[in-house]
Amino acid sequence: MKSNTEIVAMLNKVLTSELTSINQYFLHARIYKNWGFSQLNDKCYKKSILDMKQADKLIERILFLEGLPNLQQLGQLSIGEETPEMLNCDYHFQLTQRTTIQQAIALCESQQDYVSRDMLSDILEGEEEHIDWIETQQYQLEQLGLEKYLQAQL
User: Start and end of every Ferritin-like diiron domain (predicted)?
Assistant: First the structure.
């Protein structure tokens, strides 16, 4: 099924964001694991796997639309050196990613590509849930202080 090249380009932009997210969350997970923070490791690792599954859906959709998925492009990773910085890097990345997905949804809606729109809406829901999780972690950090927060993550 041949699709609008603008939609394929936007799906590739979301794909680039997902591929970047896989790498950022996977590296953060391994850093947390190295430090012994198993709860943070588990959350970031699961997020990287979810992003991999979302990237797979995007690749399949782009191919279905007779486009070429761009797996060569990767955005800049934001890697923190301490837990609060890592959470902030992930938070700002998620906000940017959410905006990209919202723009893609709007384009699909305007071009009446409702299947792509629905797929992107599902992805957006997952990203917003993760934003909420990060905001919760930031709140806990603020309320508990770094030492108590990290102790709870062991």
Answer: 1-145
